[in-house]
Amino acid sequence: MKKTSLLIFLLTAVSATTVAAAAGCAKKHQHNYSWQHSAEQHWQNCDCGDKKDEGAHIDVINNSTQASESDGKCDVCGLENYTLSFDMNGYGTAPETQTVYKGGKAVKPAPDPVDDTAEYIFDGWCTDVECGIPFDFDNTEITAGITLYAKWV
Q: CB-side exposure of 12: number of CA atoms within 13 Å?
């Protein structure tokens, strides 16, 4: 009888471990997933390290109404995106607007714009119309919609 009980116990333990391992989990627990984000990707993470639902952000439906229209939020994880636009301050041609997910970084437009009148030289992008505050593409995380202004000298 003891051998039978021990055998049943071992088979049960092996089965539970096999099921947990097959599910990508070394622990015997019910997964508790939460959304994680980067500027380009989303996924769900459990405390044990198990991941699921990895993918790129996409925004083709309105999350509130389910209509086929963009609402500024990822359709899978709900992360918000913002529009980055460029104001040329009267000279040259503006680069295309950019859509950047919350916490992401904008991409510096290339090549630099050129003044159509050849009177001015482009001297960078700024966050204010007076061009007193330069914008740092490498270190600024986008947390709201923004317009950048061309500085000309």
A: 6
**Going by DSSP bridges, is the β-strand pair 81-87/122-126 parallel, antiparallel, or unpaired?**
unpaired
SS3 at position 36: strand
Residue 14 C-alpha from the chain's centroid = 40
Chain centre to alpha carbon of residue 130: 31
What is the 8-class DSSP label of residue 97? P
Tell which residue, 12, 46, 8, has the closest CA to residue 26.
Answer: 46
Rounded (5°) CA angle 103-41-70: 80
**Measured CA distances, 73 to 30, 81, 101, 116 (Å):** 29, 6, 9, 37
- The per-residue pLDDT for range 103-140, each reduced to its tens digit, is 889 999 999 999 988 899 999 999 999 999 999 999 99
pLDDT, tens only, 9-53:
333 333 333 344 345 566 677 888 888 877 778 888 888 888 888
